[in-house]
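User: structure tokens for this one?
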Amino acid sequence: MLGLRKMLSAFRPGAASAPQAAGTPPSGVRVTAEELIGLRLKARDLRLASRKAAASSIAGGHASRFRGRGMDYLESRAYQAGDDIRNMDWRVTARAAGRPHVKLYQEERERPVVVMVDLGPGMFFGTRGAFKSVVAARAAALIGWAAIRHHDRIGALLFNGRHHELRPLGGQRGVMRLIRELVRTTEPEAGAGQVHAGALTAALLRLRRVARPGSLVFILSDFYGIDEETQLHLQRLRQHCDVVACQIVDALEIQPPPPGRYAISDGTRSDILDTRSQAGQAAYAGYFSAHHARVRELMRRSSVPLLRITTSDDVVDRLRGGLAGQVREGGSLAEAAA
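Assistant:
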């Protein structure tokens, strides 16, 4: 089964069955800016909860562990030497028989949200619904819209043999910059290059520089690029950030196609996939089953919630369900999505 996943790239998404105008790419093969902008309203119900306090110094929508002059009144306490007299609470002081009291505020901090999107050659594949690259782009755009709706900043690390870093930026400007880059890097031609064996781990290492402490990080990938060092980088990332893994899978990666002989190609080599025998089907299923089990175990050991999104899923519904609290720390929704 060596190289089977790459060889399966001969299959094309089933959603492309609708009639297309001449010269128009099939639906599900690539995304447009109009499509990703149109997801704005659908992101209204996505809740990007965080367990950690953000570390940014910019005012925003998430309470931090730091106390000072900020957005929300927290409590009043007795005056101590060095307190700012501009924070005097004169009403409490009067009720306390003249003993001076000051107000404390719970400072709010803006949280960076970072999406890491795998756009290697294997992501430009799908037999139902859409290419995995398209599903990942839709999910990233939805997360971006949800982030700025909650007054967070949105950044990204997109990798397809090269790395495209977008430092977290707030407001509509931040999500529009993400959309432009997603449209550019999800062109089928963009995924034609070769990605080296440790590309995912290298991207995680780079991500640790993009995602500052306190960030909420989403990793969108099929995770075929994991290796012995992936867990180390995930765990180090988890020390300072909240991390959610979204595994993008196609139906053919869940169960074998109907028994038959299929011509397959990775664009360079060609071969025949024979699933007519029980042994062939068992080998096929075992290959992908072992991969999914490895991904689940990696995320469990790294305490990273895992959400599976198939290429035929409604991405909005899958994200809404996962981000509404169904994704447990170190748990998995893979079975629920299958």
